[in-house]
Amino acid sequence: MKKLKSHLSRQTASYTIALCAAVVLFMALSNLSVVASVWGKIIGVLSPFIYAFAVAFILNRPIMRFERKLPKNSRNKRGLAILCVYTLGAVTLTVLIGAVIPQLGLSISYIIDNMPGFFVKTYNYIIKLLNEFHWSRQLIAEIEKMWSAVISKITHFSLSALSGMVNFSLSLGSTAISTVMVLIISVYMLAGKEKLLFQFKKATYAYFSRENAERLVNIAHRANYMFSEFIIGKLIDSALIGILAFIGMLFIYPRYAVLIAVIVGVTNMIPFFGPFIGAVPCIFILLVVSPTAAVIFSIFILALQQFDGNILGPKILGDSLGLSPIWVLAGILVGNGLFGLAGMLIGIPSFALLYSLVSENIRSNLEEKGIKPDYDRSTIDFDKAGEKNNASKEKN
Description:
Blueprint: H1 2-30, H2 32-69, H3 77-132, H4 137-170, H5 172-191, H6 193-207, H7 210-252, H8 257-267, H9 274-289, H10 291-317, H11 325-339, H12 341-368, E1 371-374, E2 379-382, H13 384-395
Antiparallel strand pairs: 1-2
Helix pairs in contact: 2-3, 2-5, 6-7, 7-8, 7-10, 7-12, 8-9, 9-10, 11-12
């Protein structure tokens, strides 16, 4: 009788929870705009902690290496390692910003000054080419209309970009305050990471069964490995690609070597689409100042990305993710749709983690049923022992 009552109480509790979940889901779907607004506010409040966690996650490995190299008898090794890594990062960023900002300003002013002449030359060249081939006046008139529309759109875009830069400059003050806050939180996270991890682990074992808690801890360890391997490897790969782009630009057009190297290196962090996103503005900048340099750079960047995709990238990243190209592309597109450019970066390791967990679950279910897939022949063999077990279960 007691067992029946406990079973009924558990069943009633599960039905109640399921009903509440269904009601909450229905209310959320009926008020998506309100849910999106509330979710945006929550993310806005938590964003300093999210950014701080990202900074701490990226700098964790360098800090651990610095900590190992410090003498064993030195006091506060963790604090010294954090200070060294943050100082090195600040110096590197200062040097890059000091080198890029002046060139960026010169590039923008030079492009604005030479843009009208560039368009006039291009327009005259196109009209001359059409006249040489004896094209009809009506077709030339249509091309002139199209060209005028293109020029107006480019002018409108340039004015919008300039106003956006002004607004960005005005918001630098609040951005600087937020950045300082993020750095302070990340320092606290790195300084007390063992205590934080222990607290999360303790809460996991407190609210879940031992089996589920161990499974969650194992998933967390695997996620940490996949994300750190991919992001750190991508940072190293992008830094090397930026250096190679700088060396190549010294021979192509030295005046913009630093600017283009930084653009290529930073956009290379974005998987799959990054090389194209970085190459387009670089080619446009060079096209205005020197069409010959733009053509040479296009060939150079194509060769560089082939080298990165086939030799350098696999050497650094290896096959730690184990994803086929179709899943890599799916991770990029889904991540971009959810979180923008940052989502394109974290989408791949997220899909790799999900793929490995689903693969393990499928493998364990197949083993329970006595099914052995032959991946070489794309066939499925049924184990006789598994068939007998399944038959006996069906009889029982």
